[in-house]
């Protein structure tokens, strides 16, 4: 079964002015699943684990900003008086999810959290990004570190948010215990401007960082081709014991801040594929990242719960088709990714 981890404290991370990343997002998710899901509260006390990932001075700086309250710490990212509690409980939700699946109580968990996390590195801004992209602490990264220290030796992080998870890449770039796979919109066309094919990891971590940058207007058919030709074969070969998913709904065609053309059919495909891996993996923990259309957040989250609960569901959207010019570009990108990663994985 899949369980949900959530806390009303996430609603207290509030923008000082209109902002796409606002409490309404979490409300839209919870409203759509509260009648079908078991909802539990996150772990409270996370600083020990937080400080294994983030620099002490960075955490202190965030805490100071919470005390000031209602400030922008960069052009995109705000901190309000409730942010520090929300951000710690966002980390706590992923830790709780990992606990639930490692204990065998659940086989999947959905951490319905905000603020999101995948753009934050050890000290805040990651790689060359101009901002932290609405993120405070890297929830999924702390979850992965927690699992590793609890005896898991291989964690896969699948990032289907439309943006590249530059923070996650940065932190695990030299770590072979964590496979990071990200599909995202071409960094030349969108924030954070990172996530190129040649970033394969370094040292011991070489080969364990997989970036699939997709051109604007990539639709379901092309995205699923990338999943089928690259993502699933690599994850299967890696044989993770635990899978963490950076779940962004902003690759959907109705999302206003990006330009991919996915329908919920792609999300349903991903959820089914991951569900079918349970047994081979100890569990799957989904953590909410982006997604700024509340209707998509609602329907997509409901779909996740239904599919992971083995309920038959209809996706009330047609499969989107990529126009030929864009498809040709995607095919050439897939070829490039395979050429680079053939050095590390058995890819056809
Ligand atoms: Zn995003």
TL;DR?
The chain is α/β, with parallel strands linked by helices. It has ten helices and twelve strands. Helix 6 links the parallel strand 8 and strand 9 (178-185).
Instruction: Tell me the series of helices and strands, N- to C-terminal.
Output: EHEHHEEHEEEHEHEEHEHEHH
Number of domains: 1
Strand content: 5-15%
Q: How many H/I helices?
A: 10
Query: What's the helical proportion of residues?
Result: 25-40%
Strand order of the largest sheet: 2-1-5-12-11-8-9-10
| CATH hierarchy: architecture | 3-Layer(aba) Sandwich
Mean pLDDT: 97
Radius of gyration from the alpha-carbon trace, in angstroms: 18 Å
Structural class: alpha/beta
Full CATH superfamily name = Histone deacetylase domain
The top level CATH class name: Alpha Beta
Low-confidence stretches: none
**How many beta-strand elements?**
12
* Ligands bound, unique: zinc ion
The largest sheet, given as strand count, sense and whether it forms a barrel, is:
8 strands, parallel
Give the overall form: globular
Can you tell me the CATH topology?
A: Arginase, Chain A
Distance between the termini: 34 Å
Question: What do you see in this structure?
Answer:
The longest helix has 20 residues, at 83-102. This protein has helices spanning 23-33, 47-53, 56-68, 83-102, 139-149, 166-172, 220-238, 264-277, 294-308, 324-341; strands at 2-5, 39-40, 71-72, 78-79, 108-111, 120-121, 124-125, 155-159, 178-185, 209-214, 242-247, 283-288. The protein is globular and about 50 Å long. By secondary structure, the chain is an alpha/beta fold. Zinc ion binds next to loops.
């Amino acid at each position: 079964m899949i369980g949900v981890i959530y806390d009303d404290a996430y609603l207290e991370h509030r923008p000082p002015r209109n902002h796409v990343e606002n409490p309404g997002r979490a409300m839209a998710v919870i409203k759509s699943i509260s009648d079908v899901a078991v909802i539990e509260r996150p772990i409270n006390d996370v600083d020990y684990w937080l400080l294994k990932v983030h620099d002490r001075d960075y955490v202190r700086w965030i805490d100071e900003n919470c005390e000031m309250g209602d400030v922008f710490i960069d052009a995109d990212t705000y901190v309000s008086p409730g942010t520090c509690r929300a951000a710690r409980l966002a980390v706590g939700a992923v830790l709780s999810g990992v606990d639930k699946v490692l204990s065998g109580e659940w086989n999947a968990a959905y951490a319905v959290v905000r603020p999101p996390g995948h753009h934050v590195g050890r000290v805040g801004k990651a790689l060359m990004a101009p901002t932290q992209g609405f993120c405070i602490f890297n929830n999924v990264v702390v979850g992965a570190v927690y699992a590793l220290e609890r005896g898991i030796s291989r964690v896969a992080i699948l990032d289907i948010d439309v943006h590249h998870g530059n923070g996650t890449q940065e932190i695990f770039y030299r770590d072979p215990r964590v496979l990071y796979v990200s599909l995202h919109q071409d960094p030349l066309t969108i924030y954070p401007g990172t996530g190129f094919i040649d970033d394969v990891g370094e040292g011991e971590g070489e080969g364990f960082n997989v970036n699939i940058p997709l051109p604007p207007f990539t639709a379901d058919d092309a995205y699923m081709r990338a999943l089928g030709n690259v993502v699933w074969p690599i994850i299967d070969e890696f044989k993770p014991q635990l899978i963490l998913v950076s779940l962004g709904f902003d690759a959907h065609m109705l999302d206003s801040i990006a330009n991919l053309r996915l329908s919920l059919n792609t999300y349903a495909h991903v959820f089914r594929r991951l569900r079918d891996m349970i047994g081979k993996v100890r569990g799957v923990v989904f953590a909410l990242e982006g997604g700024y259309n509340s209707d998509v957040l609602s329907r997509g989250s409901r779909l996740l719960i239904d599919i992971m609960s083995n309920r038959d569901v209809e996706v009330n959207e047609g499969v989107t088709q990529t126009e030929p010019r864009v498809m040709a570009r995607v095919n050439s990108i897939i070829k490039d990714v395979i050429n680079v990663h053939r050095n590390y994985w058995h890819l056809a």
